[in-house]
Amino acid sequence: MREIPVSQLTDAVRGLYFTANYDIGPDIAEAVCRACEAEPSPAGKAVLSQLAENYRIAHDERVAICQDTGMAVLFLDVGQEVRFTGGGFEEAIQEGVRQAYREGYLRKSVVREPVFDRTNTGDNTPAILHVSIVPGDQVHILALAKGFGSENMSAIKMLPPSAGEQGVLDFIVETVKNAGPNPCPPVIVGVGVGGDFEQAALIAKRMTARPVGSRNPDARYAALEQRALTAVNRLGIGPAGIGGRTTALAVNIGFAPTHIAGLPVAVNICCHASRHAETVL
């Protein structure tokens, strides 16, 4: 049994949220630069060039990529041979988020209660945690700072099995079309297919952090990703919604087994500032 002090969790989470909010991933930076070269719309090209400059300034000056520094969402794969010592597991993670948002002067965007008491909690907690127990003695942490301009444009649909591949494709394209300029395109489209209502959404959220340019290892889903990306970029929404062919940088699809009577599909949209970082303890 490997012992890990919970203080290491706090320090790791704190560092991840600095990285996520200040340093765009190289996959996204490179994709934006490629899109800028290929974009036929002069206005769209100008927007993409400004995004690249914004990434550089955020990195060099250690300031947030976007004023919406997101709601903290963490996926933790915890090895079953790990024992945490020195305090509570969840509180240690929340403290890491708390420290990052206070010390990094990152916007605090979480309210205490959604309907009747929308008072800001003042430290961007509580974060949303998704914990899985896996073999081994390591802890993998994926931290996302999810902005709600894009989160609000996400959707889920319980399709009948007869909808098939075309139904999945149509729903992806329909969701991006309905979102229009609101999620700050170019976007990364995370898609979860299968499972049940909530698992499809979890898969979709995690897919927003899959590297841009990667492909689903299943050739059928890889082909569907490409079909969806092509269809989305034909919508003409373009960078910042002002027209062009770069509406999305990627469509990343994940899937899970499902019930014989269902075909759940979740589409989680993420803006170009796909803020995430990961580490292993």
Strand order of the largest sheet: 4-2-5-10
> How far apart are the termini?
14 Å
Rounded average pLDDT: 96
What form results from the Cα inertia axes?
Answer: globular
Number of beta-strand segments: 10
Query: Strand portion, in percent?
Result: 15-25%
What's the gist of this structure?
The chain is an alpha/beta fold and 281 residues long.
What does this structure look like?
This protein has 8 helices and 10 strands. By secondary structure, it is of the alpha/beta class. It folds into 2 domains: 2-20 and 65-146, no CATH class; 149-274, no CATH class. Helix 1 (6-22) runs parallel beside helix 4. It is globular and about 55 Å long. It starts with a strand and ends with a strand.
Give me some keywords for this one:
four-stranded mixed β-sheet, globular, 25% strand, alpha/beta, 2 domains, 281 residues
How is the topology of this model organized?
Elements: E1 2-5, H1 6-22, H2 26-38, H3 42-61, E2 71-79, E3 82-85, H4 89-103, E4 128-134, E5 139-146, H5 148-151, E6 155-159, H6 164-179, E7 187-195, H7 197-207, H8 219-233, E8 248-258, E9 263-270, E10 276-280
Parallel strand pairs: 1-3, 2-4, 7-8
Antiparallel strand pairs: 2-5, 5-10, 6-9, 7-9
Helix pairs in contact: 1-4, 2-3, 6-8
